[in-house]
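Sharing a chain and its predicted structure for anyone who wants a worked example. Both blocks are below, sequence first, tokens second.
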Amino acid sequence: MKIDDINTITVVGAGDMGHGIAECALLAGYKVILTDINRDQLQRGIEKIHASLEKLEKQGKISQEKIASSRNNLLSTLDLKEAATHAQFVYEAVPEVLSIKQNLFKQLDEWTSKDTILATNTSNMVITDVAKFAHYKDRIVGTHFFNHVVIMEVVEVIKGRYTSEETMQGACDMCVKMSKVPIRIEKESPSFIVNRVNGVLRVFLGAVVDKGMAEPEEIDAMMRYHGKPIGHFELSDYAA
């Protein structure tokens, strides 16, 4: 699937990551179908998208016209099959449980065109394992967004054993369309790049707190002072 052929994006999972990805796709001008198995969760995701769009408008980052067009382009449904069959690109943002993801991608593989790109927003799982029960494994790719999705620019694009170059390029091109910076990961490895690098920092900062040298709030304040969008411990709490 080439980027110019994509007009509809489906996001599976309306939680913090899912509704953030959906908002980025809306801001890029795409029609977005947001779906979840839980009606309340789906509604919360929609409300958070609307609230975020209004916040961006107040900050002068988008216009009222962009808010209106984004709202018009946002559709929602509890019917996964309906959501999947209309999309040329699908982002999965469900809990980090391998069996859940494997079953989901088996369904997506059956319900979508064989050209549709299927992306898993996992932070550490092996893409080849996620794609285990799919027939067209070449169109499954990892796209690891970071919290908060609208703010954070980097997206890790991870190649599985069977992921085609066309799929990798399509996923990277979509990142650029959404004003993100794609980092290509050509070989599957535990936690990919960013979380592996941050692992050393986590150990160090945890030791600092354990020794009573600083409180988590102080460390987070220092990180924000130096330009980080979110503190280390704040991010850990957010992701827990």
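Comments welcome. The radius of gyration is 18 Å.
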